Amino acid sequence: MTLKLVLPKGRINTKVLKLLSDCGIELIGDERNYRPKVYGFDLEVKLLKSQNIPSLVEMGQHDIGFAGLDWIKERRCNVEVLKNLGYDPVKIVTCIPEDWDWEEMKKRKLIVASEYKNVSTDYLNNLGVEYQLLRSYGATEVFPPEDADMIIDNTSTGTTIRANRLKIVDTVMESSTQFIANSQVLKDPGKRQLVEDLLTLMQAVINGRERVLLEMNCTNDQINAIVELLPSMRYPTVSRLYQDKGFAVKAAVKKSEIRDLIPRLLEAGATDILETPIRKAL
After folding, report:
1. Residue 63 confidence (pLDDT) above 70
2. Which positions fall inside the Histidine biosynthesis HisG C-terminal domain (predicted)?
């Protein structure tokens, strides 16, 4: 049984491919190949623009895929979100010329430019303003002030917005890369198992990226103090050293805790400390 996977071309593709590679799934093909060969998992892969992926997964043209939450909402797609990967986070924001007054603007009819027709319509209706929506096809930030009063667009840093003398006055939504599935596919026991196996592999890689394996030695008198300091996924692993000359201790520790933890372990008497990357953790 083969799963049909659709991958995004462009910006979010790099991190998704790295995640799959770390899962042991390799895609072979050059950048112009929209149907790469796959090794390491039973997948049939096609590359498409992120905007098209949610609709095609909903229709059942593909079983699973990766897409931004913004395009899932924009296409109003009924798909199963299996995992928020958090890759390439962006905000969908409302922007106006930097020297205009937002509160005054809301009192009159506005011309709004955006690539996001449905997201913008929902937002503007909830805002309760009169508006005319212009559908843009890229370079939305160049519309104000001559051709639009405001824009609704995505941004990660705000640099392009500021460069065009605009300011952010509201956040419509936040978006990042999602792992999604067709809802009917999950009702097929065989395909559901494959999806769950792939999700397990991805979660193992994500867990491994967040942690390192910390190993150290200590004397018999120091073991309790060392163990009490160590956070771990469950409990640290403790074993006797040769000739009962102390203990070897190891634990999977979050990377964010290492900087503060190592000096405390040294103070408690830990020696021979080793830090090792973890490829997968469950």
Report:
1. yes
2. 209-280
| Segment 44-52 mean pLDDT | 94
Measured CA to CA, the distance from residue 280 to residue 204 in angstroms comes to 5
Asked if residue 181 and residue 150 are part of one domain, the reply reads no
Mean per-residue pLDDT, 206-229: 95
The two tokens of residue 16 are: 């998704």
Provide the domain limits for residue 20.
3-86+177-187
What gap in Å lies between CA 54 and CA 183, rounded to an integer? 12
Percentage helix, strand, coil, to 5, in the chain? 35, 35, 30
Please name which of 177, 146, 204, 148 lies closest in space to residue 23, comparing C-alpha atoms: 204
Token pair in block for residue 195:
């999806």
Number of domains in the chain: 3
Q: What is the CATH classification number for the domain harbouring 124?
A: 3.40.190.10
Q: Which amino acid does the sequence have at 254?
A: K
CATH number at residue 225: 3.30.70.120
Phi, psi (deg, nearest 5) at residue 157? -120, -20
In a domain, 138, yes or no: yes
Q: 107-113: long-range contacts at Cβ-Cβ below 8 A with a sequence spacing of 24 or more?
A: 110/149, 110/150, 111/147, 111/148, 111/149, 111/150, 112/148, 112/149, 112/150, 112/151, 112/152, 113/140, 113/143, 113/144, 113/147, 113/148, 113/150, 113/151, 113/152
Residue 176 is given by DSSP the state: -
d(CA 154, CA 139) in angstroms, rounded, equals 11
Q: Which two tokens stand for residue 105?
A: 């603007």
Distance CA 45, CA 91 (A): 29
- Cα 45 to Cα 7: distance, rounded to the nearest angstrom: 7
CB distance 181 to 56 below 8 Å: no
- Residue 120 one-letter amino acid: S
The stretch 30-59 carries a mean pLDDT of 92
